[in-house]
Design brief:
Largest sheet: 8 strands, mixed
CATH superfamily: Ribonucleoside hydrolase-like
CATH architecture: Alpha-Beta Complex
Radius of gyration: 19 Å
Helix content: 25-40%
Strand order of the largest sheet: 3-2-1-4-5-6-10-7
Shape: globular
CATH class: Alpha Beta
Structural class: alpha/beta
Number of domains: 1
CATH topology: Inosine-uridine Nucleoside N-ribohydrolase, Chain A
Order of helices and strands: EHEHEHHEHHEHHEHHHHEEEEH
C-alpha cells in the first residue's frame, strides 16, 4: 500500500495543469482525475487528462468528465493562453485509455462519501465541486480539505480584480468557499512569484525523455507570454508535494463576489487584521491586531520559494526518464 498522500484532482488541462499532473502523479497517490471545461472545452480537457495518464505511465488512474459549462455565467475560455486544444500548438492522437462512463460529479460524491483518506485538488473552475455539494450536501462534512489554485489575495488577471478560474464560474466558487470545507488557496499573488522562460524550454529538451519532450513543446507556446508565464497549477500543487515551497500563508475570511459591476469573480480577502504601515507592502504578512468579527475560512498562501519549486519541478520531470 502506498504511503503517498491520496488525492482526487479536478482540473481543466491546460498547459499548467499538465505540469501539475506530472508532479502529482510522481509524488502523490492520484486516486482519480475529473475534467471540467475551463481553459478549453471539456472534449479537450478530458482527452488531455487521459493523455497525461498514458504519457506518465499511469493509465490505471481513472479519468472522468464533469461539466463543460459554468452554472450561470457566460462562457469564458483561455484558448489565447493555452491554444484551442489546451496544449498550445501540440496535437495529440486519441488516447487508448478510455474515459470512465460515470459522470465526474457522481464520482466525486462516491469517492468522498465512501473514503476518509483522500484530499481534493482543484485546478480549474469549481463547477464540478459545487454541483457535487448541491447534489450531496453531506460532502461539506466529508471532504477533509481542498487545495485550490484560484483567486488572488490582491490583483486579478482576467479582470483587474478576478482570477480566471474563479471568474469562469463565480457562483460555483461561492458555493465551495461558503461550504465550510477547509480550503488552502494558492492564488495569483503567489504564482506570479515564479517565472518560466525559453531557457527552461531548452533545459527540458536536454533531458531526453518523452515527458520532458512534451513539457518542452507545450511550454514553448506560453514561455515568456506577457512576462507572466508562471505554471500556476504546478505552483499550487507543490504545496502538497513539498510543503516547504510555500513559506508563508495566513488564515483569513474569503468571500467570492458574484454581483459587482467591476468585481465579479473577485476573491475578497479580509485583510483588516493585517493592515500595516509600510506603504511598499500590500499588507503586512504578520497579524497586526485581532478582529473577532472576521472568521477565517481559507488558508491563503502568501510567499513562495521559487528556487525550491524549480528544483522539484525539473527533478521530477527528469525522473520520468529513469
Amino acid at each position: 500500500m502506498s504511503d503517498k498522500r491520496k488525492v482526487v484532482i479536478d482540473c481543466d488541462p491546460g498547459i499548467d495543469d499538465c505540469f501539475a499532473l506530472m508532479l502529482c502523479i510522481k509524488h502523490l497517490d492520484v486516486v482519480g482525475i475529473v475534467a471540467v471545461g475551463g481553459n478549453t472545452g471539456l472534449a479537450y480537457t478530458e482527452k488531455n487528462a487521459r493523455y497525461m495518464t498514458e504519457l506518465t505511465g499511469r493509465p490505471d488512474i481513472p479519468v472522468y468528465a464533469g461539466y463543460d459549462m459554468p452554472m450561470m455565467n457566460k462562457l469564458v475560455r483561455a484558448t489565447e493562453v493555452h491554444g484551442s486544444g489546451g496544449l498550445g500548438t501540440v496535437s495529440i492522437e486519441e488516447p487508448k485509455k478510455k474515459l470512465e462512463e460515470q459522470h465526474g460529479v457522481d464520482y466525486l460524491i462516491d469517492v468522498f462519501m465512501n473514503r476518509d483518506d483522500v484530499s481534493l485538488i482543484t485546478l480549474g473552475p469549481l463547477t464540478n465541486v459545487a454541483q457535487a455539494i448541491l447534489k450531496e450536501p453531506r460532502l461539506k462534512e466529508r471532504i477533509p480539505e481542498i487545495l485550490c489554485m484560484g483567486g488572488s489575495a490582491f490583483v486579478g488577471n482576467t479582470t483587474p480584480t478576478a482570477e480566471f478560474n474563479i471568474y469562469v464560474d463565480p457562483e460555483a466558487a461561492k458555493i465551495v468557499f461558503e461550504s465550510g470545507i477547509p480550503i488552502r488557496l494558492v492564488g495569483l499573488n503567489v504564482t506570479r512569484q515564479n517565472r518560466m522562460s525559453y531557457d527552461d524550454v531548452d533545459r527540458l529538451k536536454a533531458m531526453g525523455n518523452p515527458v520532458a519532450d512534451f513539457a518542452a513543446k507545450i511550454l514553448s507556446f506560453t514561455a515568456g507570454m506577457d512576462g507572466r508565464t508562471s505554471l500556476c497549477d504546478a505552483c499550487a500543487v507543490s504545496w502538497l508535494v513539498d510543503p516547504n515551497i510555500i513559506t508563508k500563508s495566513a488564515k483569513v475570511h474569503v468571500d467570492v463576489e458574484t454581483r459587482g459591476e467591476f468585481t465579479r469573480g473577485m476573491t475578497v480577502c479580509d485583510w483588516r487584521e493585517y493592515m500595516g504601515k509600510n506603504p511598499k507592502e500590500d499588507i503586512s504578512h504578520e497579524k497586526q491586531f485581532e478582529n473577532p468579527a472576521s472568521v477565517p475560512n481559507v488558508d491563503v498562501a502568501l510567499e513562495f520559494d521559487e528556487q525550491r519549486f524549480r528544483k522539484v519541478l525539473f527533478d521530477t520531470i527528469a525522473s520520468y526518464g529513469e
